[in-house]
Amino acid sequence: MGPAHRVDAINLVHYLALRHGDVRHLQRWLGARGLSSLGRCEAHVLATVESVRTALDGTEPQPGPTAESFEAGRSALDRNTDALFGARPPGRVPRIMVTLPSEAADDFALVRRLVSKGMDVARINGAHDGPSTWERMAVNVRRASSDVGRPCRVSMDCTLPGAFDAARVGQRVILDDGKLTGLIDGVADGELRVRIVSASAKGSRLRAEKGINLPDTDLAAGAVSDADMPLLEVAAVHADMLAVSFLRHERDVDEIHRYLKTAHAEHLGLVLKIETTAAYARLPEILLHAMRSPLVGVMIARGDLAVEAGYDRLAELQEEILWICEAAHLPVIWATEVLDQLARTGRPSRAEVTDAAMGQRAECVMLNKGPHVDAAIVFLDDILRRMSRHQRKNTPLLQPLDSWNKTDMQP
Fold this sequence. Notes:
Blueprint: H1 6-18, H2 24-32, H3 45-57, H4 65-85, E1 95-99, H5 108-117, E2 121-125, H6 131-148, E3 153-157, H7 163-166, E4 172-175, E5 180-188, E6 191-198, E7 212-213, H8 229-238, E8 241-244, H9 250-262, E9 269-274, H10 277-281, H11 283-290, E10 296-301, H12 302-309, H13 311-327, E11 332-335, H14 340-345, H15 350-358, E12 364-367, H16 373-387, E13 391-392, E14 395-396
Parallel strand pairs: 1-2, 1-12, 2-3, 3-8, 8-9, 9-10, 10-11, 11-12
Antiparallel strand pairs: 4-5, 4-7, 5-6, 13-14
Helix pairs in contact: 1-13, 3-4, 5-6, 6-8, 9-11, 12-13
């Protein structure tokens, strides 16, 4: 455990101990007596429990570390968030991450526009293009950030080239977050032949660069391999953080640390993409091993996670990930198809506006690329600024409730 996260790890362990049993009856009993129901204790578990005990004993709270640790817990999350994503934009808590298109390597005006609109983190997807393109993207982000006068960090994602080697005939392939399902009919060198068995009744169109899930395939390779060294070498020079996919066990995190050391990239922040049920099941252990790095964050890859666990369980899983990460004082990225229709067509759907507002409880919200992504950035920025007056994590903020009196709401 790195010294920078020792207190964070202790609070996480306290939270896991508290949530080990069913305390719902205790919550009701405490709430009926006007005491804390322990429902918002994630960032400061021991302080909350001791405060309740003090109230029940009828003694006066004593000044000192316990009394200060409520604010210390909140400050720890803010401090870790700032360290990974940069300073908070004025008036908004969650940062906005945007996946860059390949054109960003040669279109500086595009990158400058995204930074000026409010992009705080530029995501470079290592599953596409190559080292020269990744490097030009990152250089354009740095140049745009300096030109506009807004900080913007660079995140690079790894991929898993060995996935096709591990696939076998008869295993399922799920495409585009479940819109298409197929079975593998044949396996060749770097190629799979897939027979589609499930699609929309009207037919489904598979656009480029959509996600692929292999839920039946045993991906024996680790989260990082020698094939990732070109990306790691570019990231070591040009990026601020590395997002890692295909985590299943804390051993994968240890392997990532070894590769970062080999690539002289130990200074990079580490973003853990939670996209498999295996990673979710071992999330506490994964976080504790990851906190050997000074800069750590978590991405809830909701599309992949929904495919793996089932859409009926997604709401429950994303809530639990948010709770556990807050207990560890680690920032969370709210990802997968946020304002996707707006970014693609210029018009948002009602459901995705509500989904974007839910991102207020995370520390970063990710947008995918699209022809209207600059409009999506502005739209999301406005939503998050408005919601920041009403919600911080899972705590409602009780500002005066007078929206109906505002002139901009009048017909």
